[in-house]
Amino acid sequence: MQAVFSWAQKYEQHLSALAMVAGFVADNLFFGRVDLWQTQAVFASYTAVCFIAIPLLHWIESRAARLGASFPRWRLLLPFATQFALGGFWSGFVIFYGRSADLGASWPFLLFVFLIFLASEFFHKYHARLVFTSVLFFFALYSYAIFAVPVYTGTIGTLTFLLSGLVAIGVFALFTILLRVLARERFLADVWRIRVGAFIVFVFMNVFYFTNILPPLPLSAEAAGIYHSVWRVPGAYLATSEPEPWQVRYLGFSPTLHLTPGDSLSAYSSVFAPTTLSTVIVHRWQWYDPVGDMWTTRAAIAYPIQGGRDGGYRGYSSMPMLDAGQWRVNIETADGRRIVTLPFTVERTKIPPPKETITLN
After folding, report:
1. pLDDT digit string (tens) for 41-78?
2. Phi and psi torsions of 260, nearest 5°
3. Of 342, 323, 333, nearest to 266 (Cα)?
4. How far apart (Å, rounded) are the C-alpha atoms in residues 246 and 145?
5. CA dist 244 to 253, 255, 353, 360, Å?
6. What confidence tens digit (pLDDT) does each residue in 234-248 have?
7. CA–CA separation, 295 vs 224, rounded Å?
8. Cβ distance 223 to 312 under 8 Å?
9. pTM: predicted TM-score of the whole model, two decimal places
10. Which of 24, 55, 335, 359 gets the most CB atoms within 10 Å of its CB?
11. Closest CA to 33 of 214, 272, 199
12. 160-166-167-171 Cα dihedral, nearest 10 degrees
């Protein structure tokens, strides 16, 4: 065992990177749906590891400093365990927040999470520092609570977000109590820096939410598109669509739809929600006014959804196209949080374009 711990100390940097990779692999193996018990169990285990390993590490170091004793060799395992758990948190957040985010609205938050992920790995040696790991742990708690609380309450919205903050603060308060009990002197020396760091994280998360930058987890768009028409048949949704050019199909360019006078278009979306959650989805149809240089809302069509279906709850809305030009449909939550945006261009034609009937996911 002594040889093993000596080897671990010698290759600490490489083992730290390996712990991060292991956390990422674990996330991809277990994370399918946000409401599955496996997903919640993995996040709960990450929370428990950080909750125990961080105070235990500083208790060992404080006790050794007070008694003038050497560190037990198994102490080296605690920073690795913390690194594994925090790396698992970050990769899990990239997976779930990335699925839920509309890049046009949520890129600042995704960039923020990605930078924290990189900083956490780059400054791996600081995982033994109390302030650094405590603040990272609070950010992980808050980010997890934001999509875990709706799974258990079956609600989303401002009150649910505020409840998520209270849950994160409550768990973090218990964590700091444990720190105070196990490593009193070290905790009291750093308590204000921990509180200031956690407060900054709290402010950032609330700014992201109330400026509609935070992705609308646990909702995510499984499929969405604009079609000439959409209708429902037993067990499926069908649509008529123009053949897609390669740049639309493979590069994600916005489509151009050709309409004759009096035609309308339909927006289809399949939005995933946890089994217990019922909410309202809004299709906000907007036309770009080139004179006023602004997007104007032509219609906001809402319908309720019920969570639980793997492929998402399906629905559609239709809108007569009175103007040519640039259009978009923002698929949103009831409080205006954007799930996905469907941009497209309308061109007028006298001859109906060729169409095909497709089955929608």
Report:
1. 889 999 999 999 988 888 887 776 666 666 666 667 78
2. -90, 160
3. 342
4. 41
5. 10, 8, 12, 15
6. 889 999 999 988 888
7. 21
8. yes
9. 0.81
10. 55
11. 272
12. 170
